[in-house]
Structures are given as C-alpha cells and as structure tokens.
C-alpha cells in the first residue's frame, strides 16, 4: 500500500488586477505622497518614493496578473487595501468558505465523500483569526467527523502539511483533507514598490489516502528543513492590539535580493541530496512543481538541479496568472499540470519561503 495524493481542487475569486492597474494605483499614491511631503523630501528628512511599471513587475517576477478578493479598495490610491464586509460569528468565515469550495472539488476528483475523511488540516501563511481553528470550521461546514487543526509554515505550508497528512495516515487515519486558503491581499502593503505586486488570492485542497487501486501521486520521500531568517517577515498577529506600533510594521516585508541569493542554492541542494538518496537523477524527474513566488528563482533552481540547458517546461509556471499564492502555488501547479506525467514517472513537489522553510517531496504517478 502506498500513500497517494488522489485528488486536488482549486478555487479563485473572479476579480483580476493586471500589472498595469497595480502600477497606476501605486504611481498615483506616490505622486500624492511626494507632493504632500515635498518640503521634508527637499530637506532630506524624508525619502522620495519611486513609482513602478507593468514592465518592471513582469521582468522582476514573471507575474502578469493576480486574482484578488476585492479589487476596488486595493486600486484606490487613498485606501490601498481590499474592502471586506465583516461577518458575524454565526456566518461562515471567508477563509472557511473558500476552503469548502476547494475541498468539494478535491473530494469529487478523488471520488470520496465526507464520510471517508478523518482529518482536516488547514495549512497556509495567514489565518483569518487566532481561534477557533478555521480548519475546524471547514470540518463542521462539510460535516466531517474526526479532528481538524490549523498550521502555518508560510509558503512551505503545503509540503509540511502533506507530511502531517502522511503521518496521520500511518497512524491510522483513512484519508486526510489538506486545505490551503491564501487570502494574501489582506496583509500586503500596496504602498511598497518592492512587494506590492507579489501576491494573489486563492484556495486549494488535496485528498491524501493509502491506496493501490486509485490514480494518484504516491509520496515516496519527504524532506523538511528550517533555518531562522528575518528576510521574509509578517508581524501581524493577535497581540497587535496591545502593542504601540505603526501598522506598517505589521504587514508583509521581505528583502527580495537576499531571499533570492539564500534560497535558490538551498532548495537545489536539498532536492539534489534527496534524489541522490533515492538513487534517482534529475533526468528521472518529469516535472518539478516548485513554489510559485518568482519565475527567475524557479529557472535558477531548475538549472542548479537539472543543468543549465534544462527544459524550462519541466518546472511549470502558473504565477504569471495567479502571482505568488504562498502555500497554494505548488498545489495549483500540480492541479494544472499533473496530467502531463505518465504512469510510473516521477515528480518533485518543492515549496520554500519564510522561516526560512523548505519542503521537498518526491512522488510517483500511478494510473489505475
């Protein structure tokens, strides 16, 4: 018997923001800020802000557009954050709502029902609240028995969640529903030229079960790694109300150049060591489903692993459409391109991000 990913699901909101729209919004804010603070800027007391362009965004990241929960508030240069209606405690939370939609699709694709699932895990970068766990809310909305919990390993949460799912099955659970709901636009600083374009909103779900009779991706090996770094950080949390600090300090921040320099060789080293341990080579891997943060990063990692002449199609890119969707990105890539892998062929699911954290999973396709 092998533990397999037998079904995946994907949900995204309908509203889309293009690079052009995002740059225009930032530039309007920058112009207003520089005008209002002209004297301080001239005196050297404040730094003049710089605008951006669609061309810069795509060149820097490979991103062309992104789905968002609410567009007008983000593009309003006097607001620069989504407009979300508050829901009562008796209503399903937005994060749970999206998770339920993705979960139903994953269950349908896996051919299972809520009665077949014992565990629900919500693994993502940001929870809508501290507690009760949103995973338990999803469990309740679907009518699943057993237990549920939230976990956060930032952009690596999907691979770390797959490890928890596999361990739960080894401990006796029949099937696990893993959900990754990333409403990233709520914690992104749209005034910041270096990161305002990075994220998009989405939800994914996966069914993990032990089977030899169903089509899916068997989990052969999992390698997890963490090493503390402040180069990617988000200070937003449930203690903020008691802290005397400005809101800027509570939003997403990263030093992109340091992250690029640190993470690319680290991920490649982990994947190469994992393949060597399994007596596989890069040529044995049909697809590398890498974290969808930056197309340039993924190209470099692929070349570190498979050689400078590697076919870039072996590492599918979906971030051009979705932007960085944090933990959900690798699952979107698998969901969209898993059919390109034939029976018996291998793939690598690798996510990486804040922590630093890296998760790498070698899988093998089985067709029933």
Automatic annotation (TrEMBL):
InterPro entries hit by this protein: ACP_syn_III_C, ACP_syn_III_N, Thiolase-like
Extent of the signal sequence: none
Domain (Beta-ketoacyl-[acyl-carrier-protein] synthase III N-terminal): residue spans on this chain: 149-226
Chain ranges of the Beta-ketoacyl-[acyl-carrier-protein] synthase III C-terminal domain: 275-364
Pfam family name, one: ACP_syn_III
Keyword Transferase: yes
Biological processes annotated in GO: fatty acid biosynthetic process; secondary metabolite biosynthetic process
Record carries keyword Transferase: yes
Keywords associated with the record: Acyltransferase, Transferase
Gene Ontology MF: a single term: 3-oxoacyl-[acyl-carrier-protein] synthase activity
Species the sequence originates in: Acinetobacter nosocomialis NIPH 386
Protein name: 3-oxoacyl-[acyl-carrier-protein] synthase 3
């Amino acid at each position: 018997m092998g533990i397999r990913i037998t079904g995946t699901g994907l949900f995204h909101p309908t509203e889309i923001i293009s690079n052009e729209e995002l740059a225009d919004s930032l530039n309007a804010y920058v112009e207003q800020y520089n005008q209002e603070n002209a004297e301080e800027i001239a005196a050297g007391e404040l730094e003049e802000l710089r605008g951006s362009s669609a061309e810069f965004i795509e060149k820097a990241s490979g991103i062309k557009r992104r789905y968002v929960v609410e567009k007008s508030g983000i593009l309003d240069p006097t607001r620069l954050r989504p407009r979300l209606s508050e829901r009562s405690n008796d209503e399903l939370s937005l994060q749970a709502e999206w998770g339920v939609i993705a979960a139903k699709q994953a269950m349908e694709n896996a051919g299972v029902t809520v009665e077949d699932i014992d565990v629900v895990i919500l693994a993502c970068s940001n929870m809508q609240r501290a507690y009760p766990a949103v995973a338990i809310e999803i469990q309740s909305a679907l009518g699943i028995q057993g237990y549920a919990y939230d976990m956060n390993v930032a952009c690596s949460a999907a691979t770390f969640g797959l490890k928890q799912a596999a361990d739960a099955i080894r401990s006796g659970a029949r099937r696990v529903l893993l959900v990754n709901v990333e409403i990233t636009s709520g914690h992104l600083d749209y005034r910041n030229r270096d990161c305002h374009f990075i994220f998009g909103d989405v939800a994914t779900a996966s069914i993990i079960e032990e089977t030899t009779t169903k089509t899916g991706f068997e989990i052969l090996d999992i390698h997890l790694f963490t090493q503390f770094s402040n180069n990617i950080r988000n200070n937003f949390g449930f203690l903020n109300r008691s802290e005397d600090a400005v809101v800027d300090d509570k939003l997403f921040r990263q030093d992109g150049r340091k992250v690029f320099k640190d993470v690319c060789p680290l991920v490649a080293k982990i994947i190469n060591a994992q393949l060597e341990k399994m007596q596989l080579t890069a040529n044995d891997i049909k697809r590398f489903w890498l974290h969808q943060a930056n197309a340039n990063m993924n190209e470099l990692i692929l070349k570190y692993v498979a050689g400078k002449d590697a076919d870039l199609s072996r590492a599918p890119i979906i971030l051009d459409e979705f932007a960085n969707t944090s933990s959900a990105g690798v699952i979107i890539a698998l969901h969209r391109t898993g059919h390109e892998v034939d029976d018996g062929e291998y793939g690598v699911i690798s996510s990486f991000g804040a922590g630093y954290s890296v998760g790498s999973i070698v899988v093998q396709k089985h067709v029933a």
